[in-house]
Amino acid sequence: MDNSSRSERSRKAAIQAALTIIARDGPGQLTFDAIARESGMSKGGLMHQFPSKGALMKGLLEHQVEYFGKFSSDYLAAAGASKAEPNLAAQIATLRETITDSQSVAFAILAALVEDPALLAVPRELDAKGIQVIKAEAADPELSMLRWAAARGLALSALFGLSPFSDKERERLFDRLLDDRQWASSPKAARKKPPVRKSGRGDQRR
Length: 206
Hints:
about 210 residues; elongated
């Protein structure tokens, strides 16, 4: 194995160890000593990859952004054609995935907040770009933003232990957010037929 491949493998091992520690013990327990123990790397080898805590947090966020970016792209490729608003659906599905994945981007974001709030500039910029794409494809941009914001709220409240919903309730809510037929502005929304008015005695001609 060449030096470049060995370095990349060490970097990935350190990031996975960091995510495990954050998810299991909380961001306050994320130290170089803890990552070295979890990954089996020497502290010197770890600091060769990440010379500072800030560099580690930046690498952690970049890794998670890449992971969930790939999930979103894969979702678009597999299900996008069946959706009235494919980019919105991909965003909602990706937010749902952050709950499923125990080593989630939300934990990385929490760790970054503890270390350096300025590191959140990259996720904020990606969110802003994603919202612009969603608005551009939407028949009703504000309704689409509400669906996106609801999915974000469901994901973050669950990840930070603040959700009032059971897992089943939350899954039903995500299903509804993803179902174009539930939203009146969607081209695929279910159209209710007007009620048939039955003629009564008062409607009969004399």
